[in-house]
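2024-03-11 09:14:02 INFO receiving multi-entity request
2024-03-11 09:14:02 INFO entity count = two
2024-03-11 09:14:03 INFO echoing inputs for audit
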Amino acid sequence: MVARMLKRIYLYIIFVFLYAPIVVLVVYSFNESKSRGHWGGFTLKWYLELFKDTEISRALYNTLMIAVLSAIIATVIGTAAAIGIHNMGRIKKAIVMNLTYLPVLNPDIVTGVSLMLLFVFTKAITQMGLGFFTMLLAHITFNIPYVILSVLPKLKQLNKHVYEAALDLGATPSYALWKVVIPEIMPGIITGLILAFTLSIDDFVISFFTTGSGVSNLSIYVYSMARRGVNPKINALSTIMFLTVLILLLIVNKRMSKDSSNVKEGAK
Amino acid sequence: MKRTWYSYPYIVWMAIFIVVPFLLLLFYSFTVSTDEGIKFTLDHIKRLWDPIYLMVLLRSINLAIICTVICLVIGYPVGLILASKEYSSKKVLALLFVIPMWINFLLRTYAWMTLLEKGGLVYTILEFLHIPNSQLLYTDQAVVLGMVYNFLPFMVLPIYSVLTKLDKSIVEAAEDLGANYITVLRRVIIPLSLPGVISGITMVFMPAVTTFIISRLLGGGHYILVGNLIEQQFMVVGDWNFGSAISFVLMVIILISMGVLRKYDEGHEGGAIW
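2024-03-11 09:21:47 INFO inference complete, emitting structure
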């Protein structure tokens, strides 16, 4: 009994540690006074200012654009790559997989710096300065391995006779791929897509090194703002982001538990 | 399905955006441009042995080790408790653990700035309790706190997932054979959860040793870890050769330490992770 109490108290302390900063951000986003530690009354003015701030909305636009584009492109390239890798011989597969793990294991800062070297080095040829496009290329690069790693296990689970049966029944290889293989590995593809999207939204280090002056995403914006000094608009922004994440998670969770109960019903 | 050519776009992409940048990094690390052209040199690597830079490297490693140990000490019991819960509450609790991770980590670190600064909540509470606290923000402790806060889930989740997969009957067998809880923990549960512990250690140590945002925000502008040093060489000083050399050394250190840990892990598990 005592042990159970202790366990519970321990968990509560950890959760307080985890959530205290977030609660503080949310509470202070409604604080009238600009200085923290001082409660000046309830206000929504930081939210209003946030929506008027063109710099923030541009950063938000960049973040979402890059997240969507890089996730989609990485998913297409990564899924195709996974199908290819799955059919490779042993040695070739080992080489390609080690290459795939490199950006996953490498520290972000090294990946960011080396990509920056590439973009600056090739600038004379490509006429492409650091900016939105280089940041997009960098995000696609670090996203692809995660897509491959989510799709490959699904391909391993795939029963290869199903594909062969489709061919025996007269399907062309590409028709069988589209109608048999792709639907079977869809859960892996979706996981990869979501993973890529969230990684892209959360990234700071690689974006920081591969973007140029003027183009920033939300992380870079928060970084520069926090260094300049504390601004209550960040609190408002964090509150909105936290709520969005929370709602998204709840929806996903609900859908997933519904799916699993459907599966259980089907099994009966 | 002989469609290996499906992976060619990816291989070309990786050749351009992973292999070439890596070669460039090597090139910058080991060359110097003089009047007579570009020459091979080890000067940049040697420069890292200068006590000033060596101190930075050692300090980063030191803080990362402290952070990893704290995460392990705090995180292991969490994983243990979460794994022992009834199924329905287990899922909710694990989810509660993951939610903070979904918030941009800059925002989370920024939140700690709010808490720790003069007049912030923690500062006020300590003052109220008459605990001497001349300075909270911009110290070693603040940096370690920020690291632990950001990386704790990386320690808890692998341990938790290994422990949930643990065969309960082994624990019961040990108990039937007369072992008390401490013995079961020490001789059965902890050895069996080592793979989770090891992947937790790598997942905490690596970002901790390379971070430059946490040290910049919570450690203040004067605070230098190896990540800040690299950032400075590229963004402020403009010494790309030295910056590349530090990055290269950092990468080698991390890949070697991860390789060693994985090897150690294999000995216990009998199977490679990759």
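2024-03-11 09:21:48 INFO post-check: Strands of chain B lie at 31-34, 37-40.
2024-03-11 09:21:48 INFO post-check: The first strand of chain B starts at residue 31 and ends at 34.
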